Design the sequence.
């Protein structure tokens, strides 16, 4: 992070500040889920081309992060979680973030088209467009369903990864899409429950400050049940073996339990929301990791 | 204070670091495009019918 010895306004931006525009932590999750999509895809793989494709997907994700920070600089400035980002601190001018993001978006899509195929490149372009335009510009400030619909952008990387290997998008990667898509609302709403004041001040219509904590908790529980159900689906389409099935039942069961505990908790008790938020990150990581681990360990048929 | 770099201001040093990062980024992109070309060309040559 930007830990300058003197106040940030007195120094000018270095490369690391531009790197921060790419949302490195979101990028690492995208790299991971896209990798799982690639690893699960059938067919011969040129490892070098696959690695370059994965890099292109990562840069594309970073580009949409930069475009989001360009558009949402006013929101970021008033939220504690995002106030230290390079634009709110005055290190990077807004216009530069837009140019940086747009330039990287074009390069990443072009590189993916060269390294894999037009299906994957088109999907990457759509992902960036969906996150930057549909989510950031349109939905985020307009509706409490913002992160529900916007979650599609975060859910697409495994489909892009699969397409980069095969040039097609059959049902299997779309199941991975569905898992992330249904996981996103309980993940973000758990965060929004204990960061409600932030969103309120920024004027972002998140579910807890629009419909209240009780309604949000009910919806979190419903989505948790749906994630747990779809989480076992990869086994039933023959994508994974019994080891994955066992892992997905265990993780899904605990996700539902965490959501249930949150549902029954007092609204002033942030503990269950924080625990569910932390577990949701572990859930997605462990569930997705189980797919390549099982495959490479030779446990899958 | 014979080393001229020591006299550079923090701002200039940051600018230098940015320029170097841009140069490395562009070089990496050029190498990647070249590598992709060779890899795909190689695969097509191996697959040619005659």
Sequence:
């Amino acid at each position: 992070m930007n830990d300058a010895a003197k106040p940030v306004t007195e120094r000018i931006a270095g490369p690391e500040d531009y790197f921060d525009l790419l949302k490195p932590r979101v990028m690492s999750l995208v790299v991971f889920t896209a990798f799982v999509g690639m690893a699960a895809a059938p067919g011969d793989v040129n490892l070098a081309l696959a690695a370059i494709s994965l890099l292109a997907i990562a840069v594309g994700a970073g580009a949409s992060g930069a475009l989001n920070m360009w558009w949402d600089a006013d929101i970021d400035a008033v939220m504690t979680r995002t106030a230290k980002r390079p634009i709110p601190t005055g290190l990077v001018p807004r216009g530069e973030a837009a140019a940086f993001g747009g330039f990287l978006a074009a390069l990443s899509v072009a590189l993916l088209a060269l390294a894999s195929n037009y299906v994957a490149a088109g999907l990457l372009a759509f992902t960036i467009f969906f996150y930057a335009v549909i989510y950031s510009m349109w939905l985020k400030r307009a509706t409490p369903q913002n992160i529900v619909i916007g979650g599609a952008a975060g859910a697409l990387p495994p489909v892009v990864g699969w397409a980069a290997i095969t040039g097609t998008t059959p049902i299997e990667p779309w199941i991975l899409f569905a898992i992330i898509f249904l996981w996103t609302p309980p993940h973000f709403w758990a965060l929004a429950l204990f960061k409600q004041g932030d969103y309120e001040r920024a004027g972002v219509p998140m579910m807890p400050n629009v419909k209240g904590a009780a309604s949000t908790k009910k919806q979190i529980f419903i989505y948790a049940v749906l994630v747990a159900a779809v989480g076992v689906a990869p086994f039933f389409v023959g994508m994974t073996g019994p080891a994955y099935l066992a892992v997905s039942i265990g993780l899904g069961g605990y996700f539902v339990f965490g959501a249930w505990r949150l549902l029954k908790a007092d609204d002033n008790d942030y503990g269950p929301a924080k625990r569910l938020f932390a577990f949701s990150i572990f859930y997605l990581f462990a569930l997705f990791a189980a797919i390549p681990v099982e495959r490479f360990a030779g446990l899958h048929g | 204070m014979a080393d001229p770099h020591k006299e550079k201001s923090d701002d200039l040093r940051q600018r230098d670091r940015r320029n170097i990062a841009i140069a490395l980024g562009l070089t990496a992109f050029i190498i990647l495009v070249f590598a992709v070309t060779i890899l795909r060309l190689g695969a097509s040559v191996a697959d040619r019918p005659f």
Remarks:
- The radius of gyration of chain A is 20 Å.
- The interface with chain B takes residues 11-15, 18, 46, 48-49, 52, 55, 107, 111, 114-115 of chain A (CB under 8 Å).
